[in-house]
Amino acid sequence: MKALLGRQMRCAAVLVCATLGAVSGLAAQSWQHIGDVSKVEKLADGVELTSGTAKVRVTAVGDGIFRVRVAASGTFPKDFSWAVIAPPAPPPIGIEDGKSEVRMTAGSAIVIVQKSPLLVRFTDLQGNILLADEPTLPMAWDGERIHVWKTMPADENYYGLGDKAGPMNRRNRAFTNWNTDEFGWQESTDPLYKTIPFFIGLRAGRAYGLFFDNTWRSVFDFGKESPDYFSFGAEGGELNYYFFSGPTPKKVVSDYTTLVGRSPLPPLWSLGYQQSRYSYYPEARAREIVETMRSKKIPLDAIYFDIDYQQDYAPFTVNRQYFPNFEKMIADFRSIGVHTILITDLHIKKNPSAGYAPYDSGIQNDNFVKNADGGVFVGSVWPGDSVFPDFTLTRARDWWGGLYKDFVAMGVSGFWNDMNEPSVFLRADKTMPLSVRHRLDDGTSLDHRAIHNVFGMENVRATYDGLRKLQGDERPFVLTRAAYSGAQRYAATWTGDNSSTWNHLKMSTPMLLSMGISGFPLVGDDIGGFAGSPPSDLLTRWFEVGALNPIYRDHTAKDTADQEPWVSGPEQEAVRRRYIELRYKLMPYLYTAIEEAARTGIPLMRPLFLEYPQLTQFYGDNRDFIFGADFFVAPVVTEMTDVETVQLPPGDWYDFWSSEKHVSAAALRLHPRLEEMPLYVRAGAIVPMQSVVQSTSQTPDGPLQLRVYPGDDCRGTLYQDDGHTFAYQRGELLRVNFSCHAAANGVSIQSVVEKNSFQPWWKAEEVILYGAAAAPRAVTVDGKGITSSRYDAASHSVTFVIPGGAHGWSAQIDY
Length: 815
Ligand code: MIG
Fold this sequence. Notes:
disordered N terminus; 19% helix; eight-stranded antiparallel beta sheet; single chain; binds ligand MIG; 54 strands; nine-stranded parallel beta sheet; alpha+beta
């Protein structure tokens, strides 16, 4: 009671109350809860309910997908979203307006609105409740603020919200969404750089999803306030959320990403190894880095230039003292397969009458964010006094996109948009004043409270769209730090300024996994950590797991020790090279999985519960992940040499390194040596691989490798295209499906070409069949005997070659 009083007293000062409301005592405040339904009107896609002055619209936007909107005043604002791109595809709906409730069925789910008071619940067709308003706390508002409470079953788990730090399961914690530049964030730091107000509820194998499409400062409290309910809300904007009925976590991710869009297929080179630091300069140092990678035969596809390549930190300039031959350097790198990525922060140096075109043209076209009094807002960032493009205006986005013209002409391949929370120095709130105005195309404007969380997304939207116009048919590569739901349509991202500690290595995997299920598959972290300098074994372990992250980028802060793969001497270098090479060997498999993510939303890096939602023992697993569909990865994230316990999912698994088969294994107890990252392949996987290359521009030597691990549900896929243009969208691609069947006395393997409109690089396929107890009696391909098969007793494998590029074939191996 005392605590409650204290809170109310502090709330007497309105400003303080608004800040506190986000973190504590939500239910205790002066909410006006919605009351009884007085009127029900049918709409083409749902119902509109009246309650007092308020109106509530519950509509069906897809099979098993509903939307709830509330207008406290009774007038809905214009229907608009920065995130949602898919027009609703309402299925046939059935509405029953009963005495005490309204029921609406849309495909596989039902929404039921109780009338007195108005409470919403979602069920499956059998009536099992999936999600329900907390009966004592109907939806509510308080001035501009809005809030929703839901009952919280004791065994329900919550995942998502993007890369919030800490355990993947968000239960028992509360979070705020307000994009923030957090150098040196820790496990407990919140908010971070991104706002992804989407989560998955998972309970005994059954999943649903919820997307609260609200760009204002928002909160999600998963049982911190009460063990009986969870809740979400915002300091303003519309009460507007989507419910996805699942039933599987994959279906939820797929439905959510249908609504807000998916990552387009990135250029293949961006999936190679990327080298960065703050900052490589002068030119001689950058050349030394690239040449060392090549001479040491450590594969490399991209090098980053951080802010010091610019003149006075002014975006879109080059410091010619450091880089007298910038264009030549970029071309030289490109000629040996290394792509150049430049940072271009959004803050434009306020540099009038100096011939600085980005400032002059921006002022001329009235493209910068303004203060409430109409003057251009000036904030201090790297270039000193700076101005900020009004990215919510199409006109300003088009202008920004055009600024990339010269860099594109110089041969720059990718761009990095940092600081786009937006980050502003010398201010306690680290960003723009809430009163600045952001203009919209329709002539209206909104203040920073409504736009802050989408500012970074609109920044990378402008960059991506600009590059689409400037680069012809070449796929853009953009890296962003801030994001809102849907930013995956424009950019890849990373987890910001982490630290060179073992705990940060450990925190990385759950953050990347959470991003993936939040619709953002192209993610990485700073390998080795940004702040500080890692001990050599930590850096090596980070290179190991990073090889299986979607984006693989080594990066570190200014004034830290060197962090390139070779820095700790030949032994460590050899291990790091081995893992970078592993990534390139796995590139056919990895690229196939990235194409799947672009097409379906299912990420490359998958939490165990995404593949095995029924296995509740994995709900709390924050260390392991599934890479693609078929690899189980148990990265070593501790310096201890104690035993590591690895519990494989049910079924049989092969050790990737030794090829040893584990049959329905109990927990394995391992002592992984520094060069060993526990890695297992599902029995039933067919994994396409290639020989090592020094960059993705290089054509691999030798055949396509197909590693066949016989088991149940035996299959694999290979996707290929030119790797850098949009020709794949016009059907120029190769897709091959492989399958196998194991019987007591042999194994048969099939290759079926599904789509053959792209000519791949290989001239032969080398099949390596594992799990062979003895040399086969015979190997036949398309009915003809092969004499040249090899049996390896140590790995229990049979190897044989099938001549020709991608084609349909069938092989039979008899024991
Ligand atoms: O205020 O561009 O997170 O990756 O090296 C720091 C310099 C600005 C923050 C980014 C970091 C980058 C650094 N930037």
